[in-house]
Design a protein that fits this description.
It is built from 13 helices and eight strands. It has about 375 residues and is α/β, with parallel strands linked by helices. The strands form two sheets. It has a six-stranded parallel sheet, sandwiched between helices. Strands 6-7 form a two-stranded antiparallel ribbon. Bound molecules: 5,6-dihydroxy-NADP (NZQ) and zinc ion.
């Protein structure tokens, strides 16, 4: 196991009907800006319930953060928050709203042009201050509610923004708030959380037993309860387990001290940026083909994954690995996700467009060993067209 520091200050408030507790998590004198998306949080009453729970505090609202949040929209929120001298941001939504709110919290104080926040990759911008924020999660998927990352769209490209100042102070995880989600969004969320775990687990062994077994536990839970949540909106026990899985998949805990491979995400982000495909779906398309391409590099972990997650241990190594990858793809298909690029209208020319964009973004040396270049990305995507 490699050396690591672990820090995660977000308080999780898990369970149904606890929004009245908001009052005890935000300073009494705070002026709060509620940030929400295209309208679901308003329509289903969550914004109103939050306002009620905030009691006599001054509250303003900013709605309209789109899926894959846009820089220009967020800058309007920054202007409003500064004008109104807001001192707490409350995100109500999925990953897009939570990520957008993190960006607002940084951009309100950033000493350079706000665009500069986007250009520091995984090392993060040199921000010194951020407005405190909290989240009410309405879509389990990204783990944004308990991490320090966000992904912002600017001029048709997606940029990760990482900054420890943006860890939410608290996040409410109320599984009942997710019951209004269309089931395609549940499928996207299961796929996203699944791939978050895979990218921190399926690399090469470093004898990190706790991280490996936690990762396998989350994968097994997603395999067990993801489909139940997808097909039965009343199965609350499954929904609770799915929701907690998504948070644990990307709150940092399983990624400590292990190599990580975010190639599927980097390729997926380009598919979203160029073609507007929902984040979780892009990952479900890319992952099986990436694993087939990287079978040799990931052999030891693929065998462990096959055995411990899919219970496959009979046969030759390559047969075991092929079966595990096929099962992974079938799992995504069982959630109604098509894993062929052609079904999203993408052909060979489309693949070239995606890899050209990746080159522009400097995404040319991916994977846990930085040896996955654009030729390989091209092969992965062309194999995924079918
Ligand atoms: O905008 P509204 O009207 O609220 O509708 C949303 C949106 O259209 C809807 N929705 C959310 N909660 C709902 C609901 N509809 C009915 N009932 C509810 N309870 O769902 C749609 C999708 O929402 P979005 O927030 O875009 O989805 P998700 O949570 O999957 O977030 C995706 C974004 O997160 C980024 C992605 O790149 C993408 O921009 N990611 C963030 C990460 C992070 N911060 O750590 C990591 C991820 O890998 C990911 O890249
Ligand atoms: Zn993701």
């Amino acid at each position: 196991m490699q050396n690591f520091n672990f820090y995660n200050p977000t308080q999780i408030i898990f369970g149904a009907n606890r929004l009245s507790e908001l009052d005890s998590h935000i300073d009494k004198g705070a002026k709060v800006m509620i940030v929400y998306g295209g309208g679901s949080a308003k329509k289903y009453g969550t914004v109103d319930r939050a306002i009620e729970a905030l009691g006599g505090r001054k509250v303003i609202e900013f709605g309209g953060v789109e899926a894959n949040p846009q820089f220009n929209t967020l800058m309007k929120a920054v202007a409003l928050a500064k004008e109104e001298e807001v001192d707490f941001l409350l995100a109500i939504g999925g990953g897009s709203v939570m990520d957008g709110t993190k960006f607002i919290s940084l951009a309100m104080h950033y000493e350079k042009e706000p665009e500069d926040l986007l250009f520091h990759g995984f090392s993060g911008p040199p921000a010194k201050k951020a407005t405190a924020l909290g989240c009410i999660v309405t879509l389990p998927a990204t783990g944004s509610e308990s991490n320090a990352g966000g992904v912002i769209t600017y001029k048709d490209q997606k940029y990760p923004v990482m900054c420890p100042l943006t860890y939410p102070k608290f996040s409410f995880l109320d599984p009942e708030l997710t019951q209004t989600l269309p089931r395609e969004q549940i499928a996207n969320g299961v796929a996203d959380a699944f791939v978050h775990v895979i990218e921190q687990y399926l690399t090469y062994p470093v004898d990190a037993k706790v991280q490996d077994r936690m990762a396998e536990g989350i994968l097994l839970t997603l395999i067990e309860d993801g489909p139940k949540t997808y097909s039965d909106s009343d199965n609350m026990e499954a929904r609770k387990n799915f929701m907690w899985s998504a948070t644990n998949a990307l709150n940092g805990i399983i990624g400590v001290g292990v190599p990580q491979d975010w190639a599927t995400h980097m390729i997926g982000h380009e598919l979203t940026a160029s073609y507007g495909i929902a984040h979780g779906r892009t990952l479900a398309v890319v992952l099986p083909y990436l694993l087939r391409e990287r079978k040799d590099k990931k052999k030891a972990k693929l065998l462990q994954y096959a055995k411990r997650v899919w219970n496959i241990s009979e046969g030759r190594d390559d047969e075991i690995i092929n079966q595990a990858i096929d099962k992974t793809e079938n799992f995504f298909n069982s959630l109604g996700i098509n894993t062929k690029l052609s079904s999203y209208g993408i052909d060979e020319a489309g693949v070239d467009r995606v890899t050209a964009n990746m080159e522009k973004m400097g995404l040319t040396a991916l994977s846990e060993t930085q040896d996955l270049g654009l030729d390989t990305v091209k092969r992965i995507l062309k194999n995924a067209i079918i």
